[in-house]
Amino acid sequence: MSTLKPIHVIGGGLAGSEAAWQIAQAGVPVVLHEMRPVRGTDAHKTEGLAELVCSNSFRSDDPEANAVGLLHQEMRSLGSLIMAKGDANQVPAGGALAVDRDGFSNAVTAALEAHPLVTIERGEIAGLPPEEWSSVIVATGPLTSPALAEAILTLTGETSLAFFDAIAPIVYRESINMDVAWFQSRYDKVGPGGTGKDYINCPMTREQYEAFVDALIAGDKTEFKEWEADTPYFDGCLPIEVMAERGRETLRHGPMKPVGLTDPRNPDIKPYAIVQLRQDNALGTLFNMVGFQTKLKYGAQTAILRMIPGLENAEFARLGGIHRNTYLNSPKLLDPTLRLKAMPRLRFAGQITGCEGYVESAAVGLMTGRFAAAERLGRPIEPLPHTTALGALINHITGGHIETIDEGPRSFQPMNVNFGLFPPLAHAPKAEDGKRLRGPAKAVARKKALTDRARADLAAWLSGGVLPAAAE
Fold first, then answer.
1. 3-class SS shares of the chain: helix, strand, coil, % to 5
2. Gene3D superfamilies, per this entry (predicted)?
3. For the chain, is the Cβ count within 10 Å smaller at the N or the C terminus?
4. Rounded CA separation 310/273 (Å)
5. How far are the Cα atoms of 324, 327, 330, 412 from residue 397, in angstroms, in the given order?
6. 6 phi and psi angles, rounded to 5 deg
7. pLDDT value at position 228?
8. Beta-carbon neighbour count of residue 212 at 10 Å?
9. Binding-site residues
């Protein structure tokens, strides 16, 4: 194995860290390049690998009723470093898997530093990687350095790689007024490490909600430079003020929806809207505002967020902000193993491919690392079944998306894993008596059938001689 040339991975985020781990676990040397701390970014605060710059949640951990929960399970079965360290550093979050961000990053960094086949090099790769690097994975995520982004842009012939994303504020727990707020998970759901009372809930009357929406719309916001003005948002991460501008009730049907929650002090009065905060660290001293990504300026942000009942005296460990995101028109540019068609020695992984979310980014990194390792070892991998969460996500990225047929802007946008990406079932599930299911029962049975099929197909794929799952 020592005679093998190393694979180079550019970017030490979740995707790059996972790709490097998978390559090394397959017995192939890997050089992981991370530009921090030599060159920082607008969003990162540390030099740790796999630093979480937005939420600390990996979202639902339910493998039978949620596509991202199924993705968690599939990644665990393939020896994911990100999932292993996420599980080891979880904090209570109802039905979700949330992690202590510092503990998680430190654990990922330590594992990679200790691996005998991993070399970590600090410094920016400014431009295309050297030609002598025969196998490279670019996993630079939403904060790709300008020089590398420009080189990729030139190589692909595209006109744009970027869109904007926003990050949510974090509040000190001790500054939240628990005479107004209360602990409860939506529908009292108990998840990994949770109790069913894992979120802090701040209720609003209709009058308070209306005043809050008015303030959001009128608030002082970050202005874009002229060249940034037409950059689109990803709908799954819209700033709250943008949602408010789209309609006064939008927030009530999004991050401020009041369903599944009851104020214990006023159980007979239904709040008009509810703001949720989720634990952000193992100590329980920090809580982030769920779905409250924002581009409000800091002064306006503080004043407006303190209009929320329970947050009248809130102190913020971090205010929200905005950062530039970068992704490829992947269905056009990448092949089924995530190689760049214009330069096959380059593969791409993570958010730059057009997936969205921590888990999805790491999942694409996992498979890109396995593809690259298999190629280096002369053992090509059979394509993943599209019926699996991993396969459905990669299929969407590399060819499952249908391009627009008009002359407007490209229609490919970042996507979270969801059951809409899975091939339809051959037969609709039926009740035990053979009758057709309807309503919620039909939806539950469909999800169960999709996840059962995915597990069976992934097991068959794994038994077909692919690279062995990584081990601690």
1. 35, 15, 45
2. FAD/NAD(P)-binding domain (3.50.50.60)
3. C
4. 13
5. 20, 11, 6, 9
6. -70, 155
7. 47
8. 22
9. 11-16
Q: Which residue type is seen at 284?
A: G
List beta partners, residue 90.
Answer: 99
Count of other CB atoms within 10 angstroms of residue 4: 13
Binding region for FAD: 11-16
How far is it, in rounded angstroms, from Cα 234 to Cα 246?
14
pLDDT tens, 35-45? Answer: 876 676 655 67
279 membership: H or E segment, kind and range: strand 273-279
The H or E element spanning position 448 is helix 439-462
In angstroms, the CA 300 to CA 220 distance is 6
Residue 420 phi/psi, 5-degree rounding, is: -65, -15
CA angle 237/240/241 to nearest 5° reads 125
Q: How far is CA 140 from the centre of its chain?
A: 14
Which residues are paired to 31 by β-bridges?
Answer: 8, 119
User: What residues are paired with 118 via a beta bridge?
Assistant: 30
Question: What is the spatial distance between Cα 404 and Cα 391, in angstroms, rounded to a whole number?
Answer: 23
Q: To 10 degrees, what angle do helices 14-25 and 81-88 make?
A: 110
Please classify residue 174 by burial: count the beta carbons closer than 10 Å to its beta carbon, then call 0-12 exposed, 13-18 middle and 19+ buried: exposed
SS3 377: helix
Distance from CA of residue 90 to its chain's centroid?
16
Two tokens, residue 105? 């990053």
Give me the torsion for CA of 15, 19, 25, 30, rounded to 10°.
-130
Sorted by sequence, the CB contacts under 8 Å of residue 350 that are 6+ apart come out as 11, 13, 14, 15, 16, 139, 140, 141, 361, 362, 364, 365
Q: What is the pLDDT of residue 402?
A: 55
Q: Both tokens of residue 277?
A: 């905060």
Q: Are strands 118-122 and 30-34 parallel, antiparallel or unpaired?
A: parallel
Calculate the average pLDDT of the chain.
88
Token pair 């994303």 is found at 165
> 304 near 296, Cβ under 8 Å?
yes
Query: Do the Cβ atoms of 276 and 198 come closer than 8 Å?
Result: no
Contact 44, 38 (CB under 8 A): no
